[in-house]
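Supplementary Note 3. Input sequence used for the single-chain structure prediction.
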Amino acid sequence: MIPLLILGLLKQNPGSYGYELLTLMEERHYTYIVNFTKGSFYYNLQQLEEKQYIKKVNQSDNTRETNNYIITELGDREFEKLMYKYGSMTEYINLSFYAAMLFANEYKNEELTKLIEIQIEQTKKKISLLEQSIDNNETISIYFRKMLENSLSHHLVNVQWFEGLLKEFRDEN
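The predicted structure, written as discrete structure tokens, is reproduced below.
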């Protein structure tokens, strides 16, 4: 999915250099969509260039020379393919925590309580980041804002579920 993000950003910001694109992905919290690292970002940028989906346009300013990128005609076609591929996918929302819950009866009660508390804490952190992104980020598109609002709603429900689970678990023990 990283190639779609890079191509899409280049369509929005032609002539950007790699670091600018990476910064936009981080500022816009695209990690909610896909996990990426600096290394995976630059690997995908290089792959896109090798496949001739993007090309360098060297621009020099007074201080340094940068490799700025633009999307090619071939890249536009790839963007269209990736938009359809990811836009038509429907996936289940699942938490790794669910797998652990399958064996909750086989796990120490106090340790399970800690896991639930960790889930509550992590989910609340995600909620806080989502709220900050929605409230303070004027660079995101209306569609991305809607997606963040949807994600926020899911996380709020998850906190309620985790808190209810914790209460039930404590009442039983």
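The mean pLDDT is 87. Strands lie at 54-60, 65-71.
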